[in-house]
Sequence to fold (467 residues):
Amino acid sequence: MNKEVIEEQIQYIRKVKEMMKNEKKYYNILTMGCQLNENDSEKLAGMLEEMGYKPAKNGTVSDIYILNTCCVRENAEEKLFGKVGELKKIKQKNNSIIAVCGCMMQEKHMQDKLKESYPYIDIIFGTHTLHKFPEDLYKVISEKNKIKDILDIDGEIYEGLPIKRNSNKSASVTIMYGCNNFCSYCIVPYVRGRERSRNPEDIIAEIEQLSKEGYKEVTLLGQNVNSYMRTEKKENRSDNITSFADLLRAVNKIQGIEVIKFISPHPKDFTEDVIQAIKECKKVSRLIHLPLQSGSTEVLRKMNRKYTKEQYLELVSKIKTEIPEAVFSTDIIVGFPEETEKDFQDTLDVVKKVNFEQIFMFIYSRRKGTPADKMESQIPEEIKHKRFDRLKELFEKQVELNNKKYIGTIQKILVEGTSKNNDKMLTGRTTTNKIVNFEGSKSLVGQVIEVKIASEHKWYLKGEKNF
Ligand code: SAH
Ligand code: SF4
Ligand code: F3S
Fold:
């Protein structure tokens, strides 16, 4: 059934290609939000390139513009309206096609707002209808219609769409879609639907293909990767892959792949089995992203996160005991409704204890339709900002101290390319995601090599290749 659906879309790709046979056409995709959206944009780029479109060079006019939106925080809305406004003039001059897609398009009030205020948009499609983009585009070109293609029910998983990746060294592979957790602040479960996992064999085949193409690093993506396969049938599987831990072990066996990353796991599902799999699988990055959100047990309860401050700290220490070289990064929200100074102190306390390598900090943003939006004691903007600054200050002090610990150590790094400011310098990342700059020949790009860390410079480390 899925095969037929994709076959139909491939026919539409051919039809569009046929229509613009002798013309040079260009596309431009602006992606907002997380790596899942980036991965969706890579699929859109893949479909467009199969149709014959080429990526537009910076600043040049395109024949089609796609805005792939995010709605996890409020500022994304203003950004989108600004962009759509700018595109109006380009459309008038060049008759470009404008498509808006992604998570924000699953929100009814956003669909209405775009229809009312920006009627010149040609295609609006949601997260569950991405695979139908060739058909939608064909209809816009041939029938000059405006298209709205949004499904409110959960989309199915479609395999076999073309893909044009952003990098030729490191690739993202979505392993599951949707989320069942309903954290009380979060809009994602409403716009991405229920949790559903891709078949292990499709994931393994994709990564084997990546390895053949020369990719060295893969990042497994999902809103809650360690609940992979939890909602799927597990009986009679010939490959015996029925959990995230099994998947890690299987990916670890794929030759040619040297680094495996994953985002995001949920602390509540970080089972012993997952810890053991990471321990056994040497290719799995030792930088573990473990979203904290808040260090206060009371706030965590109101957030519906299903763990306490103590359970989070215990988990960190359990992982550290099993995998001593493990380090952590995290996501933290400050200013959740009813967050007291004492609650915030608990967050600072966890930050001090865990000593994160990286913290993605967010100021709480009210999202329509989520339970937290209806809570009475919303925190004033000024307090939220002050707490944010205090958290940032604490973290920056820790970064400096952490960096000093790297000096003199030997680190395995994937060489990503030459440094932006000096093409004699190469740049890469450690398995803990620290940027390392060092002198070396360009032929090392794409390889995994060892360097010795010589000095620290706050946002990067300097290394030596010949030590
Ligand atoms: N599934 C992932 C995160 C997805 S959203 C997880 O559970 O970790 C990425 C991050 O955005 C979240 O971790 C959270 O820190 C932040 N976030 C989500 N909703 C938010 C909101 N309403 N306001 C501020 N930050 C938010
Ligand atoms: Fe949002 Fe929570 Fe799901 Fe992450 S786990 S996407 S924060 S609801
Ligand atoms: Fe944003 Fe959608 Fe990702 S809301 S964070 S782009 S899943």
In short: Residues 179, 181-183, 186, 188-189, 223-224, 266 surround iron/sulfur cluster (ligand 2) (CB under 6 Å).
